[in-house]
Amino acid sequence: MNDLLQFCRNWFAHKMWRRWALRIACVWVVGWLGLQLAVSLIPLPEGIGKLPAISPQVADREGVPLRLLLTADEYFLQPVTLEECAPVFIQATLAAEDKRFWSHDGVDWMGVARAVKDMIANGRVVSGASTITQQLIKNVEPRSRTVRTKILESLQAKKLERQWTKTQILTAYLNRIDYGNLCRGAGTGAWYYFDKPLSDLSPAEAAFLAGLPNAPARFNPRKNFDRAKRRQLTILARMHRN
Q1: Is residue 15 part of a domain?
Q2: For residues 57 and 71, what is the distance between their CA atoms, to the nearest angstrom?
Q3: How many Cβ atoms from other residues are within 10 Å of residue 3's Cβ?
Q4: What are the residue boundaries of the Glycosyl transferase family domain, all occurrences included (predicted)?
Q5: CATH number of the domain encompassing residue 228
Q6: Number of folded domains in the chain?
Q7: What residues make up the domain containing 87?
Q8: Parallel, antiparallel, or unpaired: how do β-strands 76-77 and 183-184 relate?
């Protein structure tokens, strides 16, 4: 009799477990299919494939550039290709903004989990989780910061990752992001702050420049050099760890 009761208990328990496992699997599959459908249907921001206006140049009689002029939108931009960037600058940028850039699909779920954990522990947002792809989307189509817009940016980032290569995404990011003092793009920032091309930056210079886009006004070295310097040291430490 006891054996029969034990058999019934085990059979019931296994049956309940199988039901819950099936339900969880169904929810996961439906959620995954819904995500794929949403990514396929959502449009990318208009202008994502267009480079912002480039600064006119003043050159001498031999064609050597002397200075850049402001664009109509009042910024300086001298675009670069990824091949023109020193490898150490790419390393510094990824250490500063998106260390899993080469492996994620537009959304860094490990970064999201870390940001949520930090927010719960501190009672406020203390770290972001936006990938370089998401930041590019945000730069092309600025929106108010809400949960809805964050979801839209995540879906658009995943779609962009399907249509563009990582090299295309990183190049577009480096030519659009704000480096402060009216400098748009990493190439412009390198000339403004160090009077040299990106290809010639030292590790310290690369870390300094890569730290500015996180908060261009807060880390503006013309006004807050100590903050910019601390940011540089943080990035150098990350580069060393990675």
Answers
A1: no
A2: 10
A3: 7
A4: 78-240
A5: 1.10.3810.10
A6: 1
A7: 42-241
A8: parallel
Determine the residue type at 158.
K
Q: Does the CA dihedral 189-191-195-197 come out positive or negative?
A: positive
Structure tokens at 241: 């760890």
Each residue's pLDDT tens digit, 186-225: 999 999 999 999 999 999 999 999 999 999 999 999 999 9
Q: Which pLDDT score is estimated for 8?
A: 55
What length is written for the chain?
242
User: Taking a C-beta distance cutoff of 8 angstroms, is the pair 207, 235 a contact?
Assistant: yes
Cα separation of 204 and 159, whole Å? 35
Q: Is residue 11 domain-resident? A: no
Nearest C-alpha neighbor of 175 from the set 57, 78, 84: 78
CA distance 150 to 197: 34
